[in-house]
Amino acid sequence: MNDWSRAASAGSTAGAAASAATFSGNRGLQIEEKLIFEQDSPGHCGVDLPEPAPFDGRLGGLERQGPIGLPGLSEPQVVRHFTRLSQKNCAIDSGLYPLGSCTMKHNPRLNEKLARLPGLADIHPLQPVSTVPGALELIDTLAHWLKTLTGMPAIALSPGAGAHGELCGMMTIRAALEARRDPRRRVLVPESAHGTNPATAAACGYSVDPIPANARGRVDRAALEARLGPDVAALMLTNPNTCGLFEDEIVEIAAAVHRAGAFFYCDGANFNAIVGRVRPSDLGIDCMHLNLHKTFSTPHGGGGPGSGPVALAASLAPYAPLPWLVHGENGLDLVEHRRGEALAAIGRLKGFHGQMGMFVRALAYMMSHGADGLRQVAEDAVLNANYLRVLLEGDLSLSFPGPCMHEVLFDDRFLKDTQITTLDFAKALIDEGYHPMTMYFPLVVHGALLIEPTETESKAALDEFAAVVKALAGAARAGAAARFRAAPLLTPRRRLDETLAARQPLLRWRPVAPRREAAE
Amino acid sequence: MRYLPLTSRDRGEMLATIGVGSIDALFAEVPAAARLDGLVDLPRAMGEIEVERTIAAMAARNLAAGSAPFFVGGGAYRHHVPAAVDHLIQRGEFLTSYTPYQPEVSQGTLQYLYEFQTQIALLTGMDAANASLYDGATACAEAVMMANRVTGRKRAVLSGGLHPHYREVCETYARFVGFALAAQDPAPGEAEDLAPLIDSGTSCVVVQNPDFWGELRDWSSLAQACHDHGALLIVVVTEIVSLGAIRPPGAMGADIVAAEGQSIGNSLNFGGPYLGLFASRDKFVRQMPGRLVGQTVDADGKRGWVLTLSTREQHIRRERATSNVCTNSGLCALAFTIHLALLGEAGLTRLARLNHAAAVALADRLEKLPGVRIANRTFFNEFALRLPCPAAPAVEALAARGVLGGIPVSRLYPDRPELADLLLVAATETVTEADMDRLALGLAEVLS
Fold it and tell me: Of A356, A389, B383, B441, which residue is the least packed, with the fewest Cβ within 10 Å?
């Protein structure tokens, strides 16, 4: 018998306790919380506003007819509701979040404080430029840091997230090709790429040509070079790649791409592994987006907002989207229209000037670390991932032997003949108090489990996590399949029926018809 | 470094466990020529005090809206946000969580997004809404592309009353994604007859309400004209608070609503992050971009929520996805949901009345200035003024007097001299009588 099967029997007691009926349906600190629409007390309001004095409206007969249907709640009800909801979430603040390819690192609160300074949060994007010199200075400083770290001469700041940055980068590439009257039709994308890469290339009007991985988990250079040709617009490559490996032939690949007259787009989602130690410009990259919400620690916020600045080589810089921040005779200025030096700009990709609130946080993060701290970030991120690799490779199945970068990829060979899937294994991890690792991605191995600890985990935290994962692997080998398939047992909700959700979409609350109407 | 928990002793022990002599061994696969031996040319690490001092000095160089009479709108509005909103969105369980792909440990995020989707559907008068997009302008471009997918056509008509940034974003997408746009000329305050432009090749007509000039429009007959030709009507709303007072797009026959949600719960933030709202008729939801939350049950039969219809999305469909969008504006949507929960039916309708009252009071004052005329027949909380002189220098002169007096239309339409005397002025519940007096007085001085 192993520890986990004893834990499982203890767990079944815990499970019985968890499912034991309470009068309320609540379970200790876990409260069943209704929707705000089910807590309506009509006429109630959580905001005290004066009633305006009578006036002659100028709505021209377009007044709203009938109620909107919003519920009325007081402030204490609202605060309690959202506090209870928050308690149903996993978060970095409450535990290690080993989600590969997502860089779930600590979010410093200093950055939150600074982003809320009235001089930054309470300024309007279209108030006179003369009244916001500090905002332009901040954006320019951020641009300087990002250009120095990437080694690239220009940076487009307006994209709203990583995928928007990809779109921006691919648009500049297409604009550059059109400018030299060299329309090309294909974009090469490795099979290990994030789904956004092929989706972006397709959105930009290109056909997508997948490139296989080699046995070492890198892009197959021979296959790639065989696909290059006069109709290839670009290669979109992630480096380090989504297997957590550095593309060690990247310089040769870049040279081959350039020989073919194509551009080299790099997905910078994994920049955390090399920040301060490698400049993308030195690898032959023409264009790379940065996820400020990954490497530079702006909060993920439950799924955004993100920010996806794009570093551009000199050959692509003329096509950067509007607005441009330029150094003019009277200091910094905003160029908001396609004219002068910005004549070839691809135009606008987003309203206003970009994710300023994220710029403040990212700059505070970079200044806090400095050149020395950022280099240490990359080193500790890589060290932590390799430490987990060594602790776990005897129990899980490592997909590619040897050192990894900031994340380590396992596959499901260790679950062979256990009747347990990667999904079951990850869900069991939830009962142990951890958010799952990334599952079934990348697609180049079977049943992938991608683990990225980041540099903000301590050695003790990694030791504890590894011990839990090893214990789970032992339990899997020992045949505790039923428990794995039932997991999680201890969460606010157990496995949810995603098929039902998709077959009969219920995307909003609707009031239940009053009983008497139904009876009529 | 305060954010890095490893000590040098930890690092030594971990390297020994890994079996390498130094950290450099773990970077051995980086080509030698690309390895940086020393530090990049940037400042060294700073403590909290120094970082705070440096960035606060930059902030101090800006004129914050709250420290001046403030009348700037144009798609971003300054409203009062209750203190509870910012407190709640900074709870670590919201702030530092990931996209809710693991529903068992994300019911908090999923439930508020379901509440958010319901609020948006109710406000806009539509059947369903998604979990948000980057901002209003990108939501508008996504709406056009969705209409193209639904109709199988590739030509959109854009009203001249559409926010110019929204038009420009559509133009960028049109060029690279490959569809045609017929953008109409701006004609502030004038009627615009778009129906004759619709034909069997038109995928959609994009209009705005209130339009960029603040004018209120009834698009019901245009909706009918669209539907007669098999085209969709997309209604853009850049001031979502207006829907507390005016007839929603759904009641006018809109098929898709693309809106900016910044006005509720979110600060001005110099233009971002903002909150793209996106709603449509039920029959089109499978063509929607972005994340959707749906209700379901768990293994014990209890109600719960999941991300759903993800077979539309890039992480499943890759190059065949409906959109490359991979994120939403989660935390901005949370701020919106909390603020609107606090307001409720009574609060939102009163807030909207207060905004309209403030704008009417301001219009009454400014109309009395010699040579000044309001271009609008109707408005909600923003309108266009015709000045007897170019607006841009007037706005600069007002700023020199400490008044943020609105947006000179020439900033957005620099090549249209016929719009150079137009000033866009907004008034929300945050504007006081004294603020209005200072604008009226300042403008009188500037114009004399």
Answer: B441
Q: Do B401 and B282 belong to one domain? A: no
Closest partner residue to A390 (CB to CB) among B17, B178, B271 is: B17
Determine, for residues A278 and B36 on separate chains, whether the beta-carbon distance falls below 8 Å. Answer: yes
Name residues whose C-beta falls within 8 Å of residue B292's C-beta, 6 or more positions apart in sequence: A505, A507, B117, B128, B130, B131, B285, B307, B308, B309
ipTM of the complex: 0.97
CATH number at residue B184: 3.40.640.10
**Rounded to two decimals, what is the model's pTM?**
0.96
Nearest to B216 among A62, A251, A495 (CB): A62
Q: Is B84 part of the contact surface with chain A (CB cutoff 8 Å)? A: yes
Q: Is B368 on the interface with A (CB under 8 A)?
A: no
* Bridge partner list, A265: A236, A287
Alpha carbon separation from B174 to A338, A445, B141, B148, B156 (Å, rounded)? 16, 37, 8, 11, 10
Q: Which of B118, B178, B399 sits opposite A509 (nearest CB)?
A: B118
Residue pair A500/B297 in contact (Cβ under 8 Å)? The answer is yes
Domain ranges of chain A: 111-124+131-365, 371-493
CA dist., res. A201 & res. A482, Å (int): 43
Residues B296, B349 share a domain: no
Task: Give the number of residues written for chain B.
Answer: 448
Around B106, how many Cα atoms within 13 Å sit in the side-chain half-sphere? 28
- Top-level class of domain A111-124+131-365: alpha beta
Q: Is B93 on the interface with A (CB under 8 A)?
A: yes
Residue B332 counted as domain residue? yes
Same domain assignment for residues B172 and B231: yes
Cα–Cα nearest to A505, from B295, B161, B321: B295
Cis ω on the peptide bond leading into residue B210 (within 30° of 0)? yes
Q: Hey, how many other C-beta atoms are within 10 angstroms of the C-beta on B371?
A: 11
pLDDT tens for each residue of chain B, 448 residues long = 999 999 999 999 999 999 999 999 999 999 999 999 999 999 999 999 999 999 999 999 999 999 999 999 999 999 999 999 999 999 999 999 999 999 999 999 999 999 999 999 999 999 999 999 999 999 999 999 999 999 999 999 999 999 999 999 999 999 999 999 999 999 998 889 999 999 999 999 999 999 999 999 999 999 999 999 999 999 999 999 999 999 999 999 999 999 999 999 999 999 999 999 999 999 999 999 999 999 999 999 999 999 999 877 777 777 777 778 877 899 999 999 999 999 999 999 999 999 999 999 999 999 999 999 999 999 999 999 999 999 999 999 999 999 999 999 999 999 999 999 999 999 999 999 999 999 999 999 999 8
User: What's the gap between Cα B13 and its chain centre?
Assistant: 49
CA distance A182 to A201: 17
Contacts of B134 in chain A (CB under 8 A): 160-161, 164, 305, 350
Q: Is the dihedral of CA B343, B347, B352, B356 positive or negative?
A: negative
CA B222, B226, B228, B229: dihedral to nearest 10 degrees?
A: 140
Length of chain A in terms of residues written: 520
Domain co-membership, B277 together with B369: no
The DSSP result for A453-493, as a single string, is --TTS-HHHHHHHHHHHHHHHHHHHTT-HHHHHH---SSSS
> Which residues in A lie closer than 8 A to residue B59 (C-beta atoms)?
114, 117-120, 134
Chain A / chain B CB contacts < 8 angstroms = 709
B75 and B89 in a common domain: no
The rounded distance, in Å, linking the Cα atoms of A454 and B6 is 11
Of B319, B338, B357, the domain-final residue: B338
Please tell us whether the domain made up of A371-493 is placed in CATH 3.90.1150.10: yes
Between chains, do B319 and A51 touch, taking CB under 8 Å as contact? no
Which residues on chain B are in Cβ contact (under 8 Å) with A351?
Answer: 75, 135-138, 163, 165-166, 169, 260, 271-272, 274
